[in-house]
Amino acid sequence: MFKILTLNKIAACGTDLFDREKYNVTDMETAPDGIMVRSANMLESEFAPNLKAIARAGAGVNNIPVDRCSEEGICVFNTPGANANAVKELVIAGLLLTSRKVAAAIDWAKTLKGQGAEVGKLVEKGKSQFAGPEIMGKTLGIVGLGAIGVKVANTALSLGMKVIGYDPFLSVNAALNLKPGVQVVKTLAEVYASADYITLHLPYNKDTKDTVNAESLGQMKDGVRILNFARGELVNTEAIISALESKKCAAYITDFPNDDLIGVEGVTAIPHLGASTPESEDNCAVMAANELIDYLEHGKITNSVNLPDCELAKTADCLVCVIHKNVPALITQITGVISAGGGNIENIASKSKKDWAYTMLDVTGAVTTADIEKIDGVTGVRVI
Q1: Which of 156, 139, 140, 135 has its CA nearest to residue 89?
Q2: SS3 letters for 53-98?
Q3: Looking at residue 60, what is its pLDDT?
Q4: What are the tens digits of pLDDT across the range 22-37?
Q5: Counting C-beta atoms within 10 Å of the first and last residue's C-beta, which end of the chain has fewer, N or C?
Q6: Are 152 and 63 found together in one domain?
């Protein structure tokens, strides 16, 4: 029986997918085969030797030590696209909030409480301070055209905006899903020079940290409005505050408040509500559960952040699934060990993802893992 540990409250529509004759799902397991997690911090966690996979019910995996998982033979999944519509809707709300100063206007209106019959007059007198432009006809620049970026692009186009997008890793599927009229450009500089609004939809890593900084802000149009519903670290806090003070940036809306941003004029800080919808949580839970089930029962990998997508049907006695470094001659060593042990390899599938690879072998005959585990560069072996 497989043991699944839940580190956060996971929607029942996801956990109910586990066949209770095959799985024990609990938040108390100390030696799980799989873990389902949302926001719990796992960076300092120690993992049991039998842990095979972690499924993040969400897109970002900054709370999971992905590199260490690879070294320990643990497959890490996320759920790309499951929360895309929820985030898209909040981004569209963000466009309107930054344009029309809605949040500041609401806060100001609250101060009129107690003015009695004078409220109407005070409203008419004070409303001009919250005037802002319509989004129709303006240019929206989208940095990152993944599942969320594509949805934002298509919706903004339908709202009458001009839309330009940049993504150096634009997938064929994403490109096909873009509506005609969305212009894909080759450089960030083109986005910065043209956009009235810029929305960020890229992952956070060492290369994307501080994507919005003093230098990039200098390339943008005066009065640009910036939306960040991706990761707080993509925008340099000091630089954005300075740009707001100088009026280079007209507004900044973020789903990732920090102490320095709260209360700054021009900043709308939302408490990380992007994926906080029941529909999104359900979608993420279902996708994460299916990923774990496919992997634990069949060795199939879909949507892993550290290993390649890979699958192979079991037609012989067993499937041998090996996580290993992507180096020359290692697969030859694996097949050599299986053959030396009397196994006959009927089929093989092997895929790589940067420094790591995953090899599945459909084998007739018995296979023991000990000799495969001894091969330098192999970090995980399972026989299904």
Answers
A1: 156
A2: EEEECCCCCCCCCHHHHHHCCCEEECCCCCCHHHHHHHHHHHHHHH
A3: 82
A4: 999 999 999 999 999 9
A5: N
A6: no
For residue 205, what pLDDT is reported? Answer: 87
User: What token pair was written down for 98?
Assistant: 């930054």
What the block records as the tokens of 115 is: 């003015």
* Residue 303 confidence (pLDDT): 97
- Give the CATH number of the domain where residue 128 resides: 3.40.50.720
**Distance (Å, rounded) from C-alpha 89 to C-alpha 83?**
10
Residues 6+ apart with CB under 8 A from 25: 4, 6, 15, 18
Q: What is the pLDDT of residues 35-50, one digit of tens each?
A: 999 989 999 999 999 9
Same domain (yes/no): 180, 287: no
Q: What is the mean pLDDT of the chain?
A: 96
Residue 318 sits in the same domain as residue 212: no
Are residues 154 and 252 part of one domain?
yes
Span 48-71, mean pLDDT?
Answer: 95
Do 28 and 164 fall into the same domain?
no
Count the helices and strands in the chain (H runs, E runs).
13, 16
For position 349, what pLDDT does the model report?
Answer: 98
Strand order in the sheet with 162-166: 183-185, 162-166, 139-143, 197-200, 224-228, 249-254, 267-269
Instruction: Write out the two tokens for 174.
Output: 């994403």
The boundaries of the domain holding residue 148 are 84-269
Radius of gyration of the chain (CA): 25
Domain of residue 325, CATH code: 3.30.70.260
DSSP 3-state of 324: strand
